[in-house]
Amino acid sequence: MFQRSDPPDITITWDGRELPARSGESLATALLAAGVLSFRETPVSGAARGPLCLMGACFDCLVEVEGQQNVQACMTPVHPGLRAAPQHGVRDLPEVEAA
Amino acid sequence: MERYDVAVIGGGMVGTAIGYGCAERGARVIVLDEGDVALRAARGNFGLVWGQSKGDGMPAYGAWTRLSITLWPSLAERVSGFAGRDVCYSPVGGLTFCLSEQELAERRDFVHRRHNQGHGTVRIVDRRELLEMMPGCRLGPEVVGASYDPTDGHVDPLTLLRGLHAGLRAAGGVHLPGAPVVAIEPVGGEYRIARADGAAVMARRIVVAAGVATTRIAAMVGLDVPVRPVRGQNIVTERLAPILPKPASAIRQTGDGTIQIGVTSEDDGILETPTTTAALAKMAARAIRVLPPLASARMVRGWAALRPMTPDGFPAYAESATHPGCFVAVCHSGVTLAAVHAGPMAEAVMGGGMHALAAELHPDRFARMPIQHVPAI
Amino acid sequence: MSTDVDLLIVGAGPAGMAAAVTARSRGLTVLLLDENAGPGGQVHRGIEHRAAKDEQDADGAKLAAALRSSAVETRFRATLWAVEPGGKVFWSEEGAARSAVAGRILLCTGATERPLPIPGWTLPGVMTVGAAQIALKTAGLKPQGDVWIAGQGPLLWLYAKQAVEAGGRLAGIVDLSHGIPPAALRHLPRALMAPGYLLKGLAWQRRVKRAGVRVIHAEEIRAEGEGRLARIVVDGTEHAADLLLLHDGVVPNTQITRAIPGCAHDWDAVQACWKPRLDAWGNTTAEGVMVAGDGGGIGGARAAAHAGRLAALEAARALGRMTEDQRNAEAGTERLALNRQLAARPFLDALFPPRPVTAIPDETIICRCEEVTAGKVREAVTLGCLGSNQTKAFTRTGMGPCQGRVCGPVVHAVIAAARGVDPAQVDPFRTRFPTKPLTLGELAALAE
C-alpha cells in the first residue's frame, strides 16, 4: 500500500472514525495513506470502487463530503475536522434550504 | 447484386422499427444507414411514449398515436428480449407541469381542445392532486398544477433503438451502415439503390425513413415531402435516488436514475448539433423550478439532435404514385410511434394497404401550405 | 465583440505557464485557468510545495516562479467546461459558473494515461501509475508492501525510479512491452540527437533494478480479490498484491477540442491517438482556438514549454501586437529547441506501441462508469455500429460522469479491431459542452 514520507498534522473523519491527514493534500490521498482503498459502491452494480487516476478525470473516487454526495475525493483538499463518508450507489439530493 | 423484398433507407428509430416489423413478417429486409456521426434524431430522443399533446389540429395523428400506445406493451416485451436489457417501458401516466396560473389556464384550454378532438384521457390536475399522486415529491412552490394523462409513459429510447436493431437481425434482416443513398432507379419492376460508397442493392419495395434527409431521398421516388431540421438539446444528470415518479414533458427520471431534461426547439435551418450554454441554462432553470433539489444535481452530459419537422409538424406517410412499392415515413415521434411503425406501417409496406389513419397523413397536404427552411440535404 | 482578455489559457502545466509568461511579456492581457490548486500541471504537480529533486522538477519550479512574478491573472480550482464561437468561455470556480470573452484561446490540457483494461482492474487497489506519481508528488505517499506495477512506457520507469529514490518499496514490475520492435530501430539515429533522452530512460531502469525490484516480462496479467485487490495472476502465476499500478503510455487530452465545431482531428498512427490538426504555431482549424503541449500530440514537458511560447508569439501576432516578421524572428530559437526535444519521439513511440486490445477478454469492463464490457462493445459492432458514437448509444459506454475520458481510447481501439479496419476510419467519441460536470444550479444561474 502507501506509506507517508511526512507525518500527518490534522485529523479528518471518514465514515464516523477519525483518520490522520496532512494539510495541503487531497481527501483521496489522505484515505489512501490510511489504508482506505474502497471509496464507494457503484450505482450500476453495487461493486466496490476506489480511485483510479487521482487527477480529476475518472470520477471513480466519488465520496460524500460534508453531506454533499458524489464529490471527487481527489479534487477535495482536506482541512481539520473534514467529514467524509463512502458513496453508496446513487446520489440522494439534499433538501433545499428555505430561502 | 443482393436482392431484398424491402430496403429501408434510414437506420434510425422510424426506419429500424418498420424494417424490424417487415422482417418479423417474413420479408427479406435490408436497412441502409449512414455512418457513425450522421445527423440522427434517434440519438436525441426524449423517451416519452406520449399521447396528451399529440394531434392538436390533426385528429388522425392523435388516433394514430393512441393506437401506437395500445400496441406498446407488446412491443416493449419483444424489444427488451432482443436488446438483452429491459427497455424500461413504464406507462405510469405523464404530466405537463404548469408553473403559473396563466400556464395552467392555457393548459386547461388545450386539454379542452384535446377532448373536442377525441383525446379524452388527458385532464387537468391541481397541486394537491399532484402531491397525492406522487407522495413526498419535492415539487417547487411554483408548480400550480399539470395536465395528466394516465395512458402516457416513458421508455429508454436508446435501448429501444438497440432492441429494434437486434430484432431486425434476429428476424434475418440486414443492417448496412456507412454511406448515404445517392440514387434510386426502377429496373424491371424492382429498384436499384446506389450509395455514395459505391455499394448498391436491389429491392422490390423501398421505405424512405431518412429523417432530415427525407426530402432529398423521397424526391428520388417521386414524393414531395418537405422536411426541415429543428434542433433539440438535452441534459442528463448523474444517477439519483428516486425523485420524480412520473415522467413529464421536458423532465423525467430515467430507469437508470438520471434526470433527463429537455428540450429546445431551434428552428434555424442549421444542420449542426452543438450544445449552447444559453439554451442549457434555460432548460436547467425551468427544471429547478419544477424540482428545486435538482439545483445541486450535476449535469454529466448534454447533447443536441435534429428533429425532422414537416411544415405542419405532423408525420407524413405515403406510397409513391409514380414509383409503386416505394413509401415514405417521417416524423419526430419515433419512440411513441415505434409500435405502429413495427405493426400497421410494416404491414402497409408489405402490401397490406395503408392504415386508414396513416392515409390521412399523406404529404400531399403540404402542397397547400407555405414551406420554409427546406434543407439542401 | 469586445473582449475581457486578450489570451485565455486553459491549463497551467509547462505549455500553459510558458505561454502565459511569454504572452504577458509581449503586452497581452492573460487569464490562466487550471483545475488544480496551483501551477505545474500533472508533470510538475505540487511543484511549489516540494524540493526540486531532478532536472524536471527544476524546470517546473522555474516556470512556476516566472508565472508567479508575471502579471498574468491566474485562477486555480477553476474548471473550464465550455468554449463557444466568438471566444466565449465558461468555467466553474468556487461553486459558481463564470464566463469571459477572449481574443484568443489557448488550450494546454496536456495528456491522460491510456487505459490498460485488464480483468479485475475495477477492484479497489488498482490504480494508474500516474495516480501513484501524483500521490507521491502532492502528498509524499510512497509504495510499501505488495505493490506491483504493470504495463509499459517511459512514465512507468520514471515513477518506479522516483518511488525507490523516495524510499518506497515495490514488489515487482510486470513488463508487458515486447522489447525493441524492428520498426523502432530506424528512428534510433534521430533519437540520439535528443539530449539525454534515451540515456535517461536506461538509467531509470538500471536504478530500479539496482534497488532490487523484480522485473517479470509477461504477456498476461489479471487482478483478483473480493471487494479489493488481493493478488495478481501473471501468466498463470499468482502473486500477493495489495496495490497494482497500471500504465500503457499517455495520449493527448482532446476532450475540449473534440467538442468545438470545426476543430479537425487526425489519427496519429505512430502514437495511436487522435490529436487536433495544428499548424506550426498551434492554431487549430477552429477560428481563434489554439493548442500547445501534449494536448496537441505527445512531446513531453520540455517540448510543451517551447510549443507554449511559440503559440504565445502567434497569439500576439494574431492580435496585432507584433508583425509576422517579429514573430518569426523571436520564434527561431524556440523552434530549434522544440525540434531537438521532439527528435526522440518517433523512437519512443515506436518502442512502446499500445498493448493490442485483442488481448482484452470479452468479460472485462472497459467503461468503468457504466460498467460496459469489451464483449458488449464487440456485440454492438455486430449490430452495425461503425464508430464510437453509435456504440455509445447502443451500449452506454462513455455516458457516465467521466464522459468517455477513460474508456474513449479503448472503445475506439476495440471497435477498430472488431471491424478489422484502420483505426483512422473509426470515429472517436464526439464530446459536447459542458465537458466537465457542473450543477444545474450553476448552469441555471446563467439564464437571463
Automatic annotation (TrEMBL), chain A:
Q: Keyword Disulfide bond on this protein?
A: no
List all membrane-crossing ranges: none
Keyword terms: Oxidoreductase
Q: Which Pfam families match?
A: Fer2_4
> Where does the source fall among the domains of life?
Bacteria
InterPro entries reported for this sequence: 2Fe-2S-bd_N, 2Fe-2S_ferredoxin-like_sf, 2Fe-2S_ferredoxin-type
Under Gene Ontology molecular function, one entry of this record is: iron-sulfur cluster binding
Q: What is this protein called?
A: Sarcosine oxidase subunit alpha
Q: Which organism is it from?
A: Falsiroseomonas bella
UniProtKB/TrEMBL annotation, chain B:
Q: Which UniProt keywords apply?
A: Oxidoreductase
Domain (FAD dependent oxidoreductase): residue spans on this chain? 5-346
Q: Which Gene3D superfamilies match?
A: D-Amino Acid Oxidase, subunit A, domain 2, FAD/NAD(P)-binding domain
Question: Per the record, GO CC terms?
Answer: cytoplasm
| Keyword Cell division attached | no
What Pfam families does the database record attribute to this sequence? DAO
- UniProt-listed PANTHER family: FAD-DEPENDENT OXIDOREDUCTASE DOMAIN-CONTAINING PROTEIN 1, SARCOSINE DEHYDROGENASE-RELATED
Q: Under which name does UniProt file this protein?
A: FAD-dependent oxidoreductase
Give the taxonomic lineage as stored in the record.
Bacteria, Pseudomonadati, Pseudomonadota, Alphaproteobacteria, Acetobacterales
